[in-house]
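Researcher: I'd like a structural prediction for the single chain below. Treat it as a standalone chain; there are no partners to consider.
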Amino acid sequence: MLDKIFSPETYSMLGQWALGFCKNLLVAIIVFIIGRWIIKWVKKLVVKMLERSKVDSSLYSFLTSIVNVVLWFTLIIIIISILGIETSSFIALFASAGVAIGMALSGTLQNFAGGVMILLFKPFKVGDYIEAQGYAGTVKEIQIFNTILRTNDAQTIIIPNGGLSTGSMKNYSTEPYRRVDLTFQFAYGTDLELVKQAISEIQQRNPLVLQGPVKDSPVVAAPWIGLSELGESGVVVNTRTWCKSADYWAVYFYMNETVYQELKERGFMFPFNRMDVNIIKS
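Model: Treating it as a single chain, here is the predicted structure.
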């Protein structure tokens, strides 16, 4: 029995295996050295790309870490394969673990993906006034998983990035100008031309109101007044007034307050809904 174990054939097989393993080990060491250099080069390339795209600092470190982990994992799998070790079991194990983790953290991963999309494509930035997911406020902070808004009444709203990146959103800060749309109702029989003249004077008197087109925005136009509807209790007049985005609320309240005060003093009637009940005696 011992003669068979320590036979020349056995020594020859062990020698061949050791020679092959040493060759594979040498190749693995060379691949490791080259792979480590490639990883450093790719990381520097990714860093330069992120710096050029001006990615948010919170996403910057995370992306570089992800790239580093993926590259090193790939290099280790290649080295294990060169050494002759079966890699399919390792890959299957990591794949099953990834599926289990993905199912357990599906909502969190969705929010993370949403945060990455927001930070990369920048549909809004810190300081913008947006309306989304039923809330409106100024963007205070953009995190990986959540976006924090501050409302006008000093409330803090935390919105998950998953729904924020896939849902509809209004960004009121991207354009330099906004249009103030208001409607006013006057009693039937009111002279429409006198109403339009009075409102036009109010629009022209405010220096915050833009009186015509501007060079840097093709949509801005002169103030407009028109009859938009014949309502149940009176005629409805619509006004469109352009201003800078920062002056929106100032112009909004100015138009509402001034139109009401001045047109009331001039004798124009603002009707209210009423119901006439006729009683018929039988």
